[in-house]
Amino acid sequence: MKQLIRKTIEEFTASYAHSSDTGWEKPLVAFASANDPLFAKLKELASPTHELPQGFLSEARTVITYFLPFADQVIENNKKGRFSSQTWGEAYIETNKLIADLNRYLQEKLIHQGYQAVFVPATHNFDEKTLLSDWSHRSAAYIAGLGTFGLNHMLITERGCCGRIGSLVTDLELPPTLRYKRELCLYKNDGSCGECAKKCFNEALTENNLDKHKCYEMCLANADRLNSLESIADVCGKCLVEVPCSTAIPARENKTG
Fold first, then answer.
1. How far apart are CA 100 and CA 12, in angstroms?
2. Of residues 126, 76, 113, 99, the one with CA closest to residue 13
């Protein structure tokens, strides 16, 4: 069943790309047990109101997570200048649409097989004052073994951190994916790098801290500049491009059960 879900996500994404200007590389898929104790810890680490999988589905057994890596041209286009490129903003909007449509498709497939499934929107599911979310797709993906967090608070996967994450809660029970044994971020791993902090034009990210409000301030400035797009593109992405973890793992890969 895990292979079928992976294949479904891969084929749906490839088909979606034919009708979109945004390109995506092959998706990564990972699975977490809905009863993993790390979900409960997110109330301390992420937000006091962070939901458990069972808060969405009382009989939750598995959290399906996936990473949709941006194509090289999307990443390349966002390297220059202080503000996000239009291509990056369009990719953000198109990928959010893809995640919504893909989750609905997966939900229908699972229901057809006799299971239940619930999903949360890919974005704008946070409190704009506190900037805290009741469901972190990145944290769910970390728990599922898709990657580890970088200094920039983004998830570093086998295909780097330039892309978007989606997740789905289901009562279908599947074996969890192994998590990485060590940090994949070079800075967290051995104190080297820190390139993502140097890329932050609004000085929201340093080697010691991420000021979420200053980060969001920059995202809103980009949204104002990209107001010709069909949806809000409160994005930035400068700390994701032209860094060692943009499209690959910069540290030695090593997983454990």
1. 12
2. 99
